[in-house]
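Before relying on records like the one below, remember that each one covers exactly one chain. Contacts with other chains, cofactors or solvent are not represented anywhere in the record.
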Amino acid sequence: MFCYQCEQTSQSTGCTAFGVCGKDPETAALQDLLVEVCKKISEKAHAKRQAGETTREADLYVMEGLFTTVTNVNFDPKDLAGIISRGIQLGTEMGVECDHGIPQTLDEMISMGEQVGIESRMNTLGPDVTGLQELIIYGLKGTAAYADHAFVLEKEDDSVFAFFHEALAFLLNPAPTVDELVGYALKTGEVNLTVMALLDSANTGTYGHPVPTPVRITPVEGKAILVSGHDLKDLELLLKQTEGKGINIYTHGEMLPCHGYPELKKYSHLVGNYGGAWQDQRSEFEAFPGAILMTTNCIQKPKENYKARIFTSGLVQWPGVEHIDNGDFSAVIDAALAAEGFAETEEEKTILTGFGHNAVLGVAPQVIDAVKSGALKHFFLIGGCDGAKPGRNYYTDFAEAVPDDCAILTLACGKFRFNKLEFGDIGGIPRLLDMGQCNDAYSAIQVAVALAGAFECDVNDLPLSMILSWYEQKAICILLTLLHLGIKDIKVGPSLPAFITPTVLQVLVDNFNIAPVTTVEADMKQCLGA
């Protein structure tokens, strides 16, 4: 196998024996084959669309297929084989030609997947072109994940499906140029902006605009269910199905921002948030005395002592873990009732969330006045994905080093590095503003654009610095969106993607002045112009 799509890839070069994420070589080969199947289907779908034909089945297959191969989503070889079989059947119906024949068995699929992986292109196209191709495919994977989140809430945009097909068809080009590849990477960022706006509309249209909300982080006596991942609809369904059953619902990881949505926070048994970011789940899930529901990506290999009380839904799957695909969470509820639950209520402690663009822009006049008066000198967006790889203490140290006359915007699970610290306020405005999940980067963009408008300047001229951490493909598509918008001087860490070769990095430096994080002291000094 060879995989370098996540930040924790082995030795910062690539996983070749077993994935750091827990992916075995067979699963890796099947995911490579699934991406190839999506490319072939998209090539035909792109041509059909140009001829004026509809491609609905291909649209949904490619969106879900791409999301399925995002890091920490589906680790089940049998399920992946079933998805590939459906794709092959769909491709056959569409007239797709199979270059390597049609695999019939799981072993044949694995063998074919090994032939179409990254290394085969590295040998023919070289690491720079291959790296740019992967930059596009990883951006597409992240965008597909957000598109799927929106689709679950009945929001979609046909132009997004059209671009998936166009871009994947382009990736079959045997001799792409660097300029073409960079163009498609930035176009992926542009389309992802459309998708994030779509998802924002889906979330707020369904559950209301988030409002600043203190969230309990200490347990309450009683039976319990912990919900992790990103899916708001599954949380809503579970809340409805557990009403009156004496079960308290807790969020975990990227589900923390759900407490800010009016239509979710109205449920009194949504009592708080338990634990932190995804990478600590094995110890946190082991200690949690109830049932656990994983709604999207971020799953790790479950320990045996909680494997019987963890469940998956949506596209996420793990071999041997019960999967729920019909929205009926009776099995999760039964497991929670059978578990011991929390024996006592601990002293209440809270953290704040719910500072979406609507909430922040609601106090924009105060923010603008604070900037003009000099009370608020700089904004730092410190956010992104968290992970277990050493070096991420940088983000805690950086947040602690932010001067008292500066504000911190944060989003995604990277905030768990510092969101329990006390930062105080500036003129009644909290210095730490949690804007939500990773997809809520859209909120940060909206706020930045509004501030630029208020000060009649370009976003790059604002007293704003972006210090981003990344882990998987959702972070990649957000970075491409920021680059599409022309935002410069972004600092990325704790290490740069392995697929970004020195040549590709130079392109990003020359055009956007993107740079890896260095030391807190040096980066802070540069951000503040000292």
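The CA atoms of residues 44 and 96 lie 7 Å apart.
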